[in-house]
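User: Here's a chain of 403 residues. Predict its fold as tokens.
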Amino acid sequence: MKIVIQKFGGTSVSSLDSRNNIVKKIKEAKGKGKNPVIVVSAMGRKGEPYATDTLIGMLNEYKSAPRNLDLIMVCGEIISSVIIATHIKNEGWDAIPLTGGQAGIITDNHFGNANIKNVDTQVLLNIIKEGKVPVVTGFQGITEHGDFTTLGRGGSDVTASILGEALNADSIEIYTDVDGVMTADPRLVSSAKVLSAIDYNEVFQLAEYGAKVIHPRAIEVSMRCNIPLYIKNTNTDSPGTLITNYNKINLQKTLKYPVVTGIAHIPNRAQIKLKIKNQNIESYFDPLFFTEIANRNISIDLINLFPEEKVFIIDNNDIEKIEELLKENKYEYTIIDNCCKVTAIGNGMRGVPGVMARIISALHREGIQILQTADSHITISCLVNGKDTKTAIKVLHEEFNLG
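Assistant: Prediction complete.
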């Protein structure tokens, strides 16, 4: 039995034209002898009646328990599943709407960001064997005690990958309003192009470093079960981007694997520099200080520890909280706000000398100050001033011939 998971995002289910395109994608899959399992997000985006953010906003005036918040958040996907299933049926195929729980997704009770414990596929398999199309609510599951749970923002992608793994699907298709994974944000770089193929690790890093491509947890699931993932546009016939194993991509002789595959960025960062007065081993490591940061729910990144100072970055929204802590501990510190973390990503840079030198030289030519750097086997990140964001991304995009 050939199964394909087709996940449609909020913009893909919100209009009649897009719903007609969903039916078209289902028809194409069936024409290839595949059995589609549909996963849907809530309709539209913030401000629209059934979007998740709109539903959350209904409780803004109240202090709501996490369980209750999950219960209202799942409503958006339930509405989508019923409407899409009805639309599919009107176009000639019998379709069955299902909540995540009805589809067999069992989670723990970590409301707001639940972990999936088990997937019972029997209901879904029975529906498929009857020749019907299951339409499953993304982003949600159910506890063993019957409580609705959500999987964290962007969790519909996770639902698609989890069902793909559980059903041993041939492929997973994530439909959105772009033609695929791009080499950079097209709003900032006009020459950004759609990638025909990309490795699991690379797209995971792109997602981690700011590209709004696909939920990182969804990539993890697909990678561990080695199911090909496609990012496609609901409203076009673009082939999209294939996400698969690096070695499989290299076997395609038409593809020359680049040193850098894409440029991602995370704006609204703030760099914190702390001066260390007593340069001894205890103050150098100072683990309790970082524990205090964690206890105040402040996430830190790009951490560099030196005998004379500590340097790290945080979200701009956490500046007030970090300043309170720094003043309590009587640290000498400086803060540079409104920074941007720009990251070059590519499996092709692994073991290749001179990539960092090219990045530094390219930014230097444009007079862009690098405030901090970090690197791994397939990523190099540079912290720059927010005003230099667009130029930095464009320069690196050109340096590695990504357009």
